[in-house]
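Reopening this one. Same input as before:
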Amino acid sequence: LGGKWFTGRPYTPPLLSVPTFTDKGQPSIAYNYPNSANLNNFLQVNLSASYTWQLPKNYRLQAGFSILNIFNRQNIINRYYRLNSTGENIEQVDTYALEWTPNVMVKFMF
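Same output, byte for byte:
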């Protein structure tokens, strides 16, 4: 059983919730100061276990399992902004860490 503490990654939010327009009439995003905001801190708890059996003739069999993000929290690991397809609104795009993820493994060593 173990955990990882992640500090909030910095990101740059836009100044306005609507796009600004360049001299040529193209929509663009006016950003605030670089890295002026941080995502929330979060803790991810993981569990793993394995067992090895000794077989005849120096063979070994190992089996194990692991579970990532035991508490199944939706943790934001990245954020950026983009213009929507019409160019009329600014969209916030969040990237999330893996949710509850089980893994199983079997290894035969010879």
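So the earlier flakiness isn't reproducible anymore. For the record, The chain has a mean pLDDT of 92.
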